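Instructor's aside before we start: the two examples that follow are unrelated to each other. I chose them only because their records fit on one page, so don't look for a connection. First example below.
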Amino acid sequence: MSGHRRRPSQQSHGGRLVEGVRTIGNRAARNRPFGPGTSGRARRAAPEQRQGRRWIDYPRRGRTGPRRWLPSVRQLLAVFLLFFGCTTAAVGYAYATVTIPDPNPSTLLQNNVYYWSDGKVLATDGSVNRQNIPVSQVPADVRWDFIAAENASFYTDPGIDPQGILRAVFHMAEGGSVQSGSTITQQFVKNTYLDQSQTVARKLKELLISTKIGAAMGKQQILQGYLNSCFFGRQANGIQAAARMYYGVPVQKLNASQGAFLAAAVNEPSLFQHADSDPTAKAKAKARWSWVLDRMVKIGKLTPGQRARYAAAGFPTPRKWTLGSGLPGQTGYLVQLARSYAQAHDRSITDGSLSRGGYQIHTTFDRKRTAALARAVAKVRAQRLDPAHRSVDRDVQVGASSVDPRTGRILAVYGGSGFGHGHYSDNADTTGVPVGSTFKPIVLAAALQHRAVLKPGEPPAPITPASKFNGDDGIKIKDQQGNYVTDDKDPTGLLHQHNDTRRRWGYISLRKAMEQSVNTPYVQLGEDVGHPNVVSTAQALGLRPDSLAAPSAGFYIGTSTPSAIRMAGAYSTFAASGMRATPYSVTKVTHNGSALPGFTAPAPVRALPSAIADNVTDVLRGVIAKGTGTKAQALGRTAAGKTGTTDDYHSAWFVGYTRQLATSVVLFREDPAHPQLQSLVGVGGLQKVFGGDIPTEIWTRYMTDALTGLPE
């Protein structure tokens, strides 16, 4: 009972006691340090901790006004270190992960190079005018022109030059001349691996790749890539193309002054390409050229004396240039001819593959004879035509071709006034111009070979140059069955064949009819031989089937339209005693250094028995000796040939040959804006234009030059 009464009192007393102890304990705890080494400052921070600590004291506590928003030095340093560290890590990661990409496909494009028969460069073409060359072919002075102008520290820098970039920026900001802030390595990378966009990302990538390129490639390799990839204007990519476009020489022949201009042209190619004609462009180019030479002196690659000599020689003005002038004179026609031949003999050579370039096409064209043919045309035109005072002389066209009878090599062509004058159709390789009486020797050859049906129902009889036919004007023509040939245009319904004159020749020999170009005997002879036999002989001589006219009386006196090249080839067969060597223009084609098959020279084949071919030649000698081609006697050596004129005077021809050379010349009128043959009446002040006139004069002038030094 008493124990029971004490328990509540103990609890009550204990409660007060515990509460007292807690109170004392809390007070003691507030006065007791937190642990060893704990300072009073830490004890004072405790209330702030209860309010929550801040990782970045910004805006700054305990500050008022603007000072609250100004970061402390420690904060600025921390931000800088953080930024520097992140940037370094990012650049390091980018450098480690970036790879040198494959070259841009466009930088792999080259042009095609065409060569004369002697191996010299005839022309280049392609969608990109570039020929990659080893840096060893670039003269040392020219290399230093570019290094002085673009990157004097090229051989010592790692591929980038931060100081150079800043220096260029400050120089331009002060109003100085334009300077490149990129190293040669950077420009090589931009040209070859990247694009030309002006973005920070592209520039950063350029810097990273340039650093890797600088470590992976030798300086000479980089310089070579740079010089081959620069754009110089005038459609020239690379220094080799630039040397030819601006100065007409291979890069090996450039001097330091010319190299200084090209180093300047890289800076503003669209402007400096006109330094030949535009005063503003020339003035700026001259100033930049002078600056490059001064830089050469400054870096010790030119002496002041050498610099003075170049200054005394004057600014190296580039040669004249206009868009499309890369194929001057006859060059365009020669390139067209070679391209067509190459594509016809190798199906892998397409317009697309040619546009990508890399082909080296070796031609049969003779430089001297091509020039001689162009001179002959120019001289005769100047002497005989007066387009300024005779309107009929303005649209006169000339086409010509010269072929080696033994091999079929096309040695020269004259295709027209040239691409630079807007004349793109090759008059030497065109069809559509009737050959007139130059077709008669083919009819004679067919008659000598196949004989002729002189009487209906009888077997074909032998024909010789002495065989006689009626040469009178207006006679009626019979076919092999003895029937008169009809003509819907004649009031009688029958064909009455006419000559150029109304002279009554009576029965004359085929030789005489050839010499005087009398039509009626050869029309009747053709009917007697038969159209199939004449066509067979024409094709055997190399005339293409699609150029031969349909059967008619006019077929035998030249309504067919073979090209000048094919006519020269056909007469070459007579010159070679019946051996036909098909005309060809390409001897070899290589692509990226590898020779392509299919360009072996065509082997000569027997087209006519030698006796027949020589008989024709003997008759054609008489044409020059005492016939319509007497102007060709001025050649001064034995030759054979035939004049040709169409009935309506739409064309005039002369095709002639010696043993060494066969050449055809055609004259016609055609307005380029309205491609249709017009009459030659009145041309050169002549009432009638015959093949024995202007075409024979051109032939004789050319052959005189082309055969110089060759034996009779």
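Example two begins here.
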Amino acid sequence: MVDFSKYYRSYKYMQDMLKSDFTHNYIEEALKDGDEGKDSIFGKTNEKVIDMDWVIAIEETLPYIQKAIDEQRRFIKQAENVVRIKKAKKILTVEREEGFAIYENRVLLTLIHKALMFVDDKYSKMKDVPNDSYNNITMNRHLELNQQKLDFSVNYVNENHESLAEDLDVEDIESLSDFDRIRRIRQGLNECLATPLMKEIAKEPQVKPPLTQTNLLKENPNFKKAVELWSFLDTYKKQGFELVGEEYNGKMTDENKEDVYLAMEFQHFMMSITTNPALRKMLQEKYEEENALAKEEADRPEKVKEMVLEAQTEAVRKEEIEKLTAEITELKQKIAEQKQKIEEQANIINTQEGKIAALENERESHAKQVEQMNADFAEKTRIAEENFANRLSAKQKEFDDAQTAHNEYVTKLNTDNANKIAELNTNHSNEVAQLKSDYENRIDTINKENATATANLKSDYEGQLTSMKADYTSQIKNYEKQIADINAENAKNVKELNDNHAKEIKTITKESEKRMADFEKETTKKMNDTIADVKKKAKDEVRQAEKTAKEKIAEAKGENKLFKKKKEVFEAAYAAGSVGLMAMLAEKYASEGRTDFADHLVSATAAIRAIMIAPTPKGITLTMYTHGSAKLLKLYAGVTRYDVAIGDTVSSFGGVEGQPVFISFAGVGSEVADEIAGKIKETADCKVTVSQNRRIQSTGIIGIYFCGE
């Protein structure tokens, strides 16, 4: 695949640069307005998009690994034997022999296996994916920009039918496809494993991280490159590839169109400076001026001073953080005290407002009393008028009764003495006149008494009302004066509080500025002290690291000794399991109708791998066994149950889906082996056979055999 990394960086940079540019936005809007709905994209994309960083990293390191192998570094192994001579003396004999299993060569062996597993994991997922693409994009635009007419026409056709290269041994690796380059590095890694040196040390224990930085690893350029690849593989956490499968039915998305618009705009720019040398010259001069200004800005010594100051500040930051934290805490405490004072003043104000509210309530109470007095006066007036009416009615009845008695008396006089009628009439008239005069006098007296009582009541009420109004007015004035005094006192207190707060803030600010000045003066001294402390701590850490390394080396040696004790058992189990797996493969090839399955069995023998689960005094171990070499995958310290390793066992498989798997066990129950078989069938869809190995004596071992890539 073509490397578009720099193109994409330029593309993103152009997008960011032109985002707010008037010309860009103007042309883009014109291109959008010119859309007649005839833009199209047809085709399909089936492609393996590979992150070439890891491919290049292994490609560049392979020659150095091959050179390191060719150096054939070895060491002399010396064995001292004491031989007993009959009744004479002891004789010390020295035997010397050469060996290749030095630490650095085992680093190479482990690295090759590490890189091969890394590549195989990705290769197995990509090998069966087709790489077949065909795309056709068309777009036409006719624009009028002010007095300028522009025609754009895009007809882009891309066709790719990848086929695997027959010869991977080429000088120009850029001529190979990305996937062929992966095949090439797999081939190179396997060739490294097939060298005499790697075969010689294949059974030696592989190296566990972290690497011990020997002089050879640090100084030899070939081994230095190998260590760099080791570090790269450990830190590479990305998937490393993407499998793309897309089909296009003619419709272009807005994102597709905007990408083509950007290409059209850049095409317009290129054609403009091609046909206008003066424009190109002016833009070039402006470009050089901006570059000169940018360089001048970057070279300013102030930036260097800022970097130095930043470094010095960072060096002493940890020492000063507690001191600054204490100062901040003290300032916060002072601010809290000021807030408390403000809250106390607020409480005083709330108390005064409560008093004002009480006075307002009292005023409302007086208003209600005045209203009640008015109601009482109206009631008394009603009662007086009612009493007057009752008295008037009684007098009228008294008069009526007297009139009735008089009529009866007249009737009797008329009957008894008609002669006295005239006299009696005269007397009667006089009496009637007198009675009428008396009645009128009494009515007048009652009216006068009623008027006097009414006037007295009204006078008393008005006097009381005037007195109450005067008292109320006086109280209101007193309340208003109290409120004014309270407000004045509050304003004075608030002003005093604000002034004090401002003074304290100013004092605190001056103290902070002084402390910062003192801090800057002491920076250099403290930085030097810090550097001295850092150096001392670094020495202590180096000593501690050396001690830890020695302990780990001792532990590794103990594990290697422990592994060697199990080596014979592993080899016996591996031999029996390989036979069982070969039988399953032969059955599989025969069922597929292969006539040359014997050749396939021979090639499959080299690919047999076994994952062994076995107990040790430290716990259950999970070990990979292949081509006569073993690698400890994991130690479950202090664990005696076999089932803890089942998940890691199944996850260690790679590229074996659909292939036969043979499981043997000895010295343990069949339950764990059957559970592993069930997990493999479930996740990898493999045919699995479980068999007990009765030929070996073991405290407990389970072997899972399969053919890897």
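The first helix runs from residue 5 to 18.
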